Amino acid sequence: MSTLIFGHRGIPVKFPENSLQGFQYAIEHNVEGLEFDVHLTRDRLPVIMHDETINRTTDGKGRICDYDFDQLKEFKLSNGESIPTLYELLELVKNVDVLLNLEFKTDQIHYEGIEEIVLKQVSQAYLRHPVIYSSFNLDSLKICQQLDDSQNYCFLTEQTIRNPLAFLRKEHLNGLHLNRAQDDEGLIERIWTVNDEARMTKLFSQDVDGIFTDDFEKAMATRNQLLV
Ligand code: G3P
Ligand code: MG
């Protein structure tokens, strides 16, 4: 059984989603992978947040892309933290044995140049493991490939992809991130968002490549149970 467990936005069952506190807790508790979402501020700084707006997860209102970072950092998550920057997360994990899945949130807003800014920032962090880049926006992944075709790019989709291996070959991608397993022979697939124990057990037994979960500790305990 080799399914990797990714903390989806950190560990949102314990700490605010996409917060440094959650990421810190996760790495202190030996999380194998961390998934997080990236947008650009108006002054083109990559920050970590799921939504395009700060309405749901901070005490502020408005779109990330309408604020410069100096303004944005005044708004607080529910634990009092400012919205984390990508740089802060890279600093936190750079000497840690953890796999990162960076999701470009470019399907609603076109953040001109985000791919180049992000790839450059990550390459300058000299992480222990290559980052897995994903997006619902295939164009973002294509831009990334043109910038650096040696990285690991995965397409996020809710659709069933027919002939997934042919699709990946054609698009020069490494794998699919799906909300249900396709289970095609030889396909690299990681599944989100898996919080239910029975579903975890099934996916572990199918040996999918990874799962994204809001509770990585529960997933680790569930996987351990299957090993005894
Ligand atoms: O990357 C897996 C998952 O995070 C994709 O959906 O909306 O939670 O970012 P979402
Ligand atoms: Mg995500």
TrEMBL record:
Pfam families: GDPD. It comes from the Bacteria. One of its GO terms (molecular function) is phosphoric diester hydrolase activity. Gene3D superfamilies: Phosphatidylinositol (PI) phosphodiesterase. Residues 3-223 form the GP-PDE domain. GO terms for biological process: lipid metabolic process. This is Glycerophosphoryl diester phosphodiesterase.
